[in-house]
Amino acid sequence: QIYRIASIPGDGIGVDITEAALRVLATLSTTLGTFELETTTFDWSSANYLTRGHYMPEDGLTQLKAFDAIYFGAVGWPSVPDHISLWNLILPIRKALNQYVNVRPTRILAGTKSPLVGCERGDLDWVIVRENSEGEYAGQGGISHEHSDHAIGTELAIFTQVGIERIMRFAFETARSRPRKKLTMVTKSNAQRHGMVLWDRIFYEVAKGYEDVDIDKMLVDAMTVRMVLNPKSLDTIVATNLHADILSDLAAALSGSIGIAPSSNLDPTRKNPSMFEPIHGSAPDIAGKGIANPVGAFWSAAEMVRWLGEEKAADGLMRAIENVTAAGVSTKDLGGSADTKTVTDAVCKEIEKL
Amino acid sequence: QIYRIASIPGDGIGVDITEAALRVLATLSTTLGTFELETTTFDWSSANYLTRGHYMPEDGLTQLKAFDAIYFGAVGWPSVPDHISLWNLILPIRKALNQYVNVRPTRILAGTKSPLVGCERGDLDWVIVRENSEGEYAGQGGISHEHSDHAIGTELAIFTQVGIERIMRFAFETARSRPRKKLTMVTKSNAQRHGMVLWDRIFYEVAKGYEDVDIDKMLVDAMTVRMVLNPKSLDTIVATNLHADILSDLAAALSGSIGIAPSSNLDPTRKNPSMFEPIHGSAPDIAGKGIANPVGAFWSAAEMVRWLGEEKAADGLMRAIENVTAAGVSTKDLGGSADTKTVTDAVCKEIEKL
Ligand SMILES: CC(C)[C@H](C(=O)O)[C@@H](O)C(=O)O
Ligand SMILES: CC(C)[C@H](C(=O)O)[C@@H](O)C(=O)O
């Protein structure tokens, strides 16, 4: 089986870790011999924008549709305002390719440590299902009376029945597929009393079709407290675009480092390619130094391979990653002293033993 | 000096902890003899709503204006939808009385422990300045096509120049008054590219008047990571209504318990009374059992007394509270086994020694 992968390293450490991930994927494919990857790299980045005036060419989104999956590094660079870079690269891809789910698993990998006192490996094992197409990221709003002394800015969060139903169904399916069959829905409908109330209502409606799933509801503020003080009580979590963005970064930190956390931007209809990216950003301060933690990138690569149907390869890659973290070969953010290449070499070596 | 206090115990443990706070305040006033409190209690609550159809009477907000300060317990009860209870009691008070600042200090009190490995007392000492009048809590939005299969819900976040400027100025003044003179501004203007961009711009404009304050900017998601992994690097923090709501609960958890954290809803113009409330909610599960942690309520009472101009009394009350936590007299959430009354008795005893 040959899979066509579009690779978009993007900015900063996105470049370092994408290179590392592609090496690991190549080693995986060669070692197992069960699938091949044909990778095309796109230089869509802030550098591109600064020299040529665009992130992707006009037909960029159409080009991506020809691929089986997209591997994404990171985007964002100090000399371009963040809302320009994001709304010209990562966010249009998520939206145009109908990647309405963003799956963000978090657990404490072997050999790594949670910053929480007494939080051991089995105590924190979550999957955050993030709504990825609307809500607070709907993109509407504006500024009136700009540069007067009475300017007004707005942001319109939009929640649609279709959008809510499909993310809830995905979240319930995810919860059902996990041993504990537990789903926590996050909301802030006490203060955000309009659209968010629809979010709540549809959650309970969809729940009727999943009576085997154990549900509960948390306000987003109280949820952070529960994540810190009672991590074991959580399993699958569903939240809006913004809430889940915040909670997933917190989750990564509580599992040890933002550098290990993966994400999958999925179109569950499979009519469009899905996109896989570590949740960390472009980290301009350490870009190009070869010291970025590639584990989040490897884990994202494993999720990509899994989505393509290569379960065994994905499991093998995860084992290889954890053998390396367990052996203490890790970057500074995890308390080690290895650089990106050393970690990558070690993971490749583990893959070769599969 | 006599101060007129409006007390609104509200729901659940709000009742328990308000009673405790009023006892402590009475002891403080009697012991020091420097000021008197004349307290009027209002039974505005979910129980009131369920029997009489309203939280406060029609002239409730006008009644409150006659007081020097408001002490608030908690609101929210399972038999009333949260958005009804909040938008009929706490949120109208904050808005109508121009309490546009919500100040939320967090530190690790003597004798209490952070859940973070190696995080000692001096390592976490923050003040979160929350915008309290607009943003994601502006209250506009709605649902169209309700109960069709294509309903749409919206929430409109509104950021105004007046609203942003005044909260930024307050935040800079707060930062300036603290030893480290450090202000971190939180935003998500990379994804929320309209109103939130105004938030950023005005921050930098106001900053020009505060060159002695050291500033930086964080995205709200990355901010949670920094709070967990590098608490010492933060001091004063300014964020929108929703972002600060989330971050302040997280802050309380990282300092040991949501039960200790205070908040001050301030009208800095002093044309209206300000309101003081612990940040925890009504906790229906432990309501009326006499086991709620009253420390957040006491700390809020200290902030009230400070706002009224009684600095010495406020400092004395804080000392009394910390003498008690240091002695290990604490409720279950802090690892102790004392009930509300035991903690309250102990604090009163400490006050009598002042
Ligand atoms: C880069 C940015 C648009 C993004 C988001 O907010 O979705 C990032 O924080 C993430 O979590 O993937
Ligand atoms: C009760 C609720 C309206 C409130 C808020 O969201 O402001 C609470 O969470 C708080 O932090 O004071």
From TrEMBL, chains A, B:
Enzyme class: oxidoreductase
Occurrences of domain Isopropylmalate dehydrogenase-like (ranges): 4-347
KW Phosphoprotein (keyword) present: no
GO molecular function, one term: magnesium ion binding
Keyword set includes Repeat: no
Record keywords: Magnesium, Manganese, Metal-binding, NAD, Oxidoreductase
Assigned EC number: 1.1.1.83
Catalytic activity: (R)-malate + NAD(+) = pyruvate + CO2 + NADH
Swiss-Prot/TrEMBL cofactor(s): Mg(2+); Mn(2+)
Protein family according to the UniProt entry: Belongs to the isocitrate and isopropylmalate dehydrogenases family.
Name listed for the protein in its UniProt record: D-malate dehydrogenase (decarboxylating)
Organism per entry: Massariosphaeria phaeospora
Portion of the full sequence shown: 10 to 363 of 559
